[in-house]
Amino acid sequence: MKLATWNINSLKVRLPQVLDWLAANPVDALCLQELKLPDEKFPLEAFTEIGYQANWAGQKTYNGVAVITRGAGTDVQRNLPAYDDHQQRIIATTLDSPMGDIRVISAYCPNGQSIGSDKYEYKLEWFKALRSWLRDELQRYPRLAILGDYNVAPKDEDVHDPLKWIGDVLVSEPEREAFGSLLELGLSDAFRQFEQEEKSFTWWDYRRYAFRRNAGLRIDHVLLSQALQPYCTACVIDKAPRANEQPSDHVPVIATLDFAAALA
DNA sequence: ATGGTAGACCATCTA
To answer: What's chain A's average pLDDT?
Structure first.
C-alpha cells in the first residue's frame, strides 16, 4: 500500500500534472493540499476516468484539501469537529486494507505568515485543536496516517540554511513544539525512520532560483501511528515534478506500507 | 531592509 501527499498550489493549474503523476505513481491514496477552488469546481470526473475516487473540502481562492483514493472511502470527515474554522484544512477518510481499516487524513496546516502575527497565533491555536482531535481519532482508528503540508521544518537538518532561518516562521521553536506535540501522541515522522540524503526538502520558494540552489525546507510530512509504523518499508520525496513546466512549489512525499509479512 | 515569483482575481492577499 502506498500513501502520498502533495501540496499542488491550485488544482486548476496542476490537474494535468496530478493526473500524469498518478499514472506514473499509482498510489492507493494521494492527499492534496491548496486546491484553491470551491467544492463545485472539483474535477471529480478527471479522477474517476483514471480509476480513482475522491473526497474533498474545497474553498474559493485559498486552502482546500482532498484525498484521492483507489477504493471508496468511508466515514468522511471535513475539518476539525471542535474547532470553528471557515478555512478548509482537513479531510479524513477510512480505507480498507488487508490489516483492516486505515484512517487517512490530508492536512493543510496554517502557514503563520510571520512571527507574532494574527496568522501565527492562529497557526498555534490550530495545531492545538489538531492535536486534541488526533488524540480522539487515534482511539477510534489505531491504524492512522496523517499526511500533508505542516508548514513546519521539524529540525535544523530540514532547513537548507538554518542560520539564515533562525527564529523565522516555519522553523520557530513554538511551531516545532506544536509539531512535536503531534509526535507525542505516538505518531512518527516516516521520512526519518530511514536513511536519507542530506538536504532533502519538499518545498522551495518560487523566488531567487531556490530550487536550482536547493534552498528548500522539509515541511511536508507523513506521520504514522504506532500501529502502522512497523509496516512502513520506505518513505521518499519525489523531486521530479518540481522540474515540470509550471510546477507547484512543493513536491510529493510517498510512504510504502507492506503488510505481506504480517499476513503470511 | 527590501524584494524576488506564483496563483487567485482585476487591487491586493496569501504563500
So the answer is: 97
Q: Whole-angstrom Cα distance, residue A204 to residue A148?
A: 16
> Cα–chain-centroid distance for residue A207?
23
What mean pLDDT is predicted for residues A56-60?
A: 98
* Ordered domains of chain A (ranges, CATH): 2-263 (3.60.10.10)
Distance CA A59, CA A66 (A): 11
Q: What does residue A61 show for φ and ψ, rounded to 5 degrees? A: 75, -50
| Nucleotides of strand B lying closer than 7 angstroms to a protein CB | 3-9, 14-15
pTM for the full predicted model: 0.98
**Confidence band of A129 (pLDDT split at 50, 70, 90):** very high
In one-letter notation, the amino acid at residue A63 is: N
Residue A5 Cα distances to A116, A209, A235, A250, angstroms = 29, 24, 11, 10
Q: Which residues contact A45 (CB under 8 A, 6 or more apart)?
A: none
Residues with CB under 7 A from strand B: A 9-10, 12-13, 36-37, 60-63, 110-111, 113, 119, 151, 206-208, 246
- Average pLDDT score over residue span A141-168: 97
Residue nearest to nucleotide B14 (CA to C1'): A62
Strand partners for A147: A106, A222
